[in-house]
Amino acid sequence: MVPTVTLTVVEGPHKGQELVCTDLALVTIGRAEECAFRLRGELADLFVSRRHCLIRVGPEGVEVRDLESSNGTYVNGRRIGFPIDGGNGDGSAAFKRLLNDGDRIRVGSSVVQVAVLKPTTGTVPSGESECCPTNAANPRSHPSSALGRLDKDFVT
Description:
By secondary structure, the protein is mainly β. Helices cover about 0% and strands about 40% of the residues.
C-alpha cells in the first residue's frame, strides 16, 4: 500500500504551491521545464538547480534524494547531498533520506512541507500513477518524463 503524500510550499516565493501524490511516483523538484514540481520564476529561484532533488513515493515510504544540486537540499535544517565520514565510505547514504509526516525540505529559498497519510486497510490501489497540482493559481499538467511510475529498477 502506498501513502498519500502532499508537498506544500510553506515558505518562500512559491508559498501555497502544492502537489498531491496518491500512488507510486517519482517527483523531480527544480527549475527545469520537465520537473513535476517547478520552483521557477523568481530571482530567489536562482539558488534552485534545474533538477535539484527527487521525491520517491513507494510502499516502503517516502524518500528524498539530492541530485547533486549546487546549493544542497536540506531536511529539517540538515543538509543531505554531500559525502559523510564513516559508513561504507562512498558517502551514498548522505544523498538520500527517508521522510516522515511533517518533515520540511528546503530547496533554494523555498521550504516544502511533507504530509504523509498512511493508507488504511481495505484501500485498493488504482494502478495509475497519480500526482496532481492542487494550487488553482498555478495549474499545469506534468509531462510523463517528469513524473514516472516507480519501478523495480529504481536504485536505492
